[in-house]
Structures are given as structure tokens and as C-alpha cells.
Amino acid sequence: MLTLQELHRRAAEMRRNPTEPEKRFWRHVSNSQLGGFKFRRQQVIGSFIVDFFCPSRGLIVEIDGDTHDQPYDARRDAFMLKQEFRTARFTNLDVMQNIAGVLQLTSDTLQELPLRTRWALPHPNPSPEGEGLRTMP
What's the predicted TM-score (pTM) here? Predict the structure, then answer.
């Protein structure tokens, strides 16, 4: 199991080097473009890193590639359910060929979910660019 510091380092690296489907999804949801909902990229939750997280609604969006570790995904999904987070999964192909449909399903899901004030607070350590964690000396 990775330490919290290692998880944050890995998440920062994943933000710097997103996949093409992640870039495409982010272009449509960054800066609260999707219905005014704020998303974070590569968010550390517990001992996991999720692709996209909308804190005010507790929605996790995963953009899945061709290979997946089913036992890992099952553990992560079980943990997220205990936190009362909902996960929406889309394939890379979905995002690349039907971004409008992915965004519509994401928007519909956000509208269905109740406001979560605990996670709606500002990020505890925002970078000057408005995302991610600053490196601590």
C-alpha cells in the first residue's frame, strides 16, 4: 500500500500526463463548465486515486482503458460506496467517440445526487493555478 505522500505524488504525475480521453473529458468539465459543477482531477480519496471527482455531489467519474484490475476496482468501488460516493464509468472509446453522450449522462447523474456539504468545502491546499497540491518543502 502506498503512503499518502506517494499517492499525492502519483496523482500529481497523472495530472501532468493525462490520457487523451482524460484530456477530452477535462476540457468539458474544468472551470465548472458542466452545469456549474466543480470537478477535481486525479483526486486522492482514502488509499485510492480517482480520475475525476465532483465534491459537491460525491460523484466519481472513471475513464477506463482496455486493461483493468477487477479485484482492485471491486475494492475501490466498495470503499467509495461506504463513503456514499457514486461512481460513473466510461470507456476510453465512449469518451473519444461520444463525448456528448458521456457529458449528458454525467450531467444527469449530477442532477440526481444530493448536495454533499462535507466535501463541498474549498480544497485545503489549492495551487495558484487552481488545482492540485503544492509541493511541501
Answer: 0.82
Phi/psi of residue 126, each to 5°? -70, 145
Residue 87, SS3 per DSSP: strand
For the chain of 137 residues, list the mean pLDDT of each consecutive stretch of 10.
92 96 98 97 95 96 78 88 93 96 98 81 51 43
Question: Which residues, listed in sequence order, are joined to residue 131 by a DSSP beta bridge?
Answer: none
| pLDDT score recorded for residue 121 | 47
Amino acid at 119: W
Q: Which three cell numbers stand for residue 131?
A: 488545482
Rounded to whole angstroms, how far apart are CA atoms 82 and 78?
6
CB < 8 Å & 24+ apart, contacts of 81-86: 83/45, 83/46, 83/58, 84/58, 84/116, 85/45, 85/58, 85/59, 85/60, 86/58, 86/59, 86/60, 86/113
Q: What sign for the dihedral angle of Cα 61, 16, 11, 122?
A: negative
* CA proximity to 74, closest of 48, 106, 56, 95: 48
Q: In which residue are the cell numbers 448536495 written?
A: 115
